[in-house]
Amino acid sequence: MPSTSNQNTFEHVSWSQDVWLLLAARFVRMLAFGSSSLILALFLTGLGQKPIQVGRFLTLTLIGDFLLSLVLTFIADSVLGRRNTLRLGALSMLISGLVFATTQNRHLLLIAAIFGVISPSGNEIGPFRAVEESILAELVHKQHRPSLFGWYVVTGSLAASLATWLGGFMNNWIGISAKADARADLMRYYRLVFVVYSVLGFIKLMLSLALSKRCERPARTVPCQANPTQGHSDSVANECDPLLPSPDSTNTPAAEIQAAEETFGRSRFVGLCVLFAIDSLGSGMVSQTLQSWFLSRKFHVELPSLGAILSAALLVSSFSNLFSARLAKHLGLVPTMVLTHMPSSIILALTPLPTSLTATSALIIARAATSSMDQAPRSAFLSAFVPSHHRTRVLGLVNTVKTLAQSGGPTLTGWLTDKRSMGWAFHVAGALKTAYDLGLLAAFSAVK
Question: What region holds the Major facilitator superfamily (MFS) profile domain (predicted)?
Fold first, then answer.
């Protein structure tokens, strides 16, 4: 038995080229997202947009990401295929970056932001995460998922941290702030960042082209044998039907909701989505680009210092995620999600209170220590209860609900900023995230 265990451990860490390709693709993608999120709000401000206009632009960007994710994850398994979905998303990144790098037309920028892939938060957007997590969940056994998803989160956090630091460093290295025409040079620098964003989209496209057929949806015979927890015999019988369902029955919102109901039941799944929406609304109000904007407005911080502060926060977040899988094994998935996330929610609400940059930066970094430790347990929590043949669409549904809720955050923050009350965005976001933590603990603490 020990030898079998060791063999499995080795197999699931080093055997599959697809796992490493997916991790590399996430690293490249988060490099792009991290680089753009540092400067996006500053770029829009440089174009002459007012705070409320910046907020609306970011909101419309997230709504576009929501629609793109919804469509692509619904058809990833049944029409496009998972690999083609990832390739199409990478192509959208490439095109969006080129548009932002080459035009000042606000309408074209908005079209590229809505129909392409530009991250206003530095976090995941588009169909990528749902598809990749669905693939990874099938490439490893259930007991290895928390560890793999932990490294998946760490990979993204490290990439975002590196991109944020490099963004500030390069700005300082070329000496923009010391020049008389600093504003014009800043705008040229911002466009250079979007050129790099486009190049990273191309690299991600190449990585997606290298994925094997193992990444596609498996045959539907396995879930029938490993579904003893479902208590409805009619549902099990339908899953075991050897005939493929018609496209009309698998690609509709009704089919998506039914798949989720098989997992949690209607009320529990809806409740879970509501909780995720509350958390995501809070995240949208204090995304990385809005934190950068907040520090710039309150303390007149230049881009190199902004990059250093936010990069340090992301770096701390990266290493803290290494411990989430171990905590999940000892405490359980839901307790780990709550106990690591709630302290960061409280710190977030306190962030605007200090009057010095040093104290504010310390709170931002302290919050980062636990703010993302819930991500790997959350991914494992969802993957454990979703049948593999529904996993891509259900995870896609959850992610699109989160993105849609997050899209309202920038507009609220823009409105508060217009009222000279930007600090209240942090207070409200912290309260929303704390409510999410308490609701999750109350409703799902018994789920193992």
Answer: 268-448
